[in-house]
Amino acid sequence: MTNDLAATIWTELAGTDFAMTTVDAGGVPTRSLQAGTGEEHVIFLHGTSGHLEAFARNLPAHAERYRCHAIDMLGHGFTGKPDLPYEIPRYRDHLLAYLDAQGIERAHLVGESLGGWVSARLAIDDPSRVASIQLLCAGGTVANPEVMERIRTSTRRAVESDDPEPTRRRMRLLMADPADATEELVAVRHLIYHRPDFVANLHNLLCLQDLETRLRNILRPEDLAEITVPTLIVWGRDNPFGEVPEATAMHAHIPGSELVLLDHCGHWPQHEAADRYNPLSLAFLAKHPVG
């Protein structure tokens, strides 16, 4: 965990050249933070109701070697929010449109939670566009009604209240140590949650927490077995949205995958354990260059 004096998005990115821009991805204005000048591209994808700031502690280290893109996914953050259910194929297609708009033929994908679900889906459906995937507490392999209700209820409560406290509780739910849910992250999340377009499309964003919809999109063992690209699975032992057996099952079904379990870590390993995750990620990426 970064110490309190450095725990702001600005200080995490200080000293790194980056650009915040909007990319037209298939007609969807997509917020993108880009850093680094390397020849290989790494795309960072956040979780449900998240935003690109989830990777502030990772971009500087990765940008020393790679061209990095942290994006707000379809319907999230400051990216466009078409009025339609955000199911996994739509996230996949939006990601492909972003790659096309940036002229990226093949990229490494780093996906946390929902972002991991989308990364795995693209690796299955179009492996020619994917150099490797990192599944950070990735969703999409189970349908746990209790967890789905926790996500749905905590998010709705935060969106419907002008008080930032429900947003603070929603962020702390992700972390093993509540201090990692910094007040700056809470402020960014609260701002996004109260944008009119976010409020209007909340039902679309939460559609994967509906059991029937989730089962239609779920990654089954036979789907995972089709993943042929190099895969790193990173899991927090204190993950409130998925227990360790979920990670070990994923590892068992994805041929040749690597699994790392992090102690004292919740649902945001890239943020909570950045000092452990960044070297791990960089070593994995170095082993699997874009061919």
Produce the secondary structure layout:
Blueprint: H1 9-13, E1 18-25, E2 28-35, E3 41-45, H2 59-63, E4 67-71, H3 88-101, E5 107-112, H4 114-125, E6 130-136, H5 145-160, H6 165-172, H7 183-193, H8 196-200, H9 202-205, H10 211-217, H11 221-224, E7 231-236, H12 244-253, E8 258-262, H13 269-272, H14 274-287
Description:
By secondary structure, the protein is α/β, with parallel strands linked by helices. 41% of the residues lie in helices and 17% in strands. The protein has a single domain, classed as Alpha/Beta hydrolase fold, catalytic domain (Rossmann fold, 3-Layer(aba) Sandwich). The protein has helices at 9-13, 59-63, 88-101, 114-125, 145-160, 165-172, 183-193, 196-200, 202-205, 211-217, 221-224, 244-253, 269-272, 274-287; strands at 18-25, 28-35, 41-45, 67-71, 107-112, 130-136, 231-236, 258-262. The chain has an 8-stranded mixed beta sheet, sandwiched between helices. Strand 7, helix 12 (244-253) and strand 8 (258-262) form a beta-alpha-beta unit. The longest helix is centred in the middle third of the chain and has 16 residues, at 145-160. It is globular, with a radius of gyration of 17 Å. The two termini are 34 Å apart.
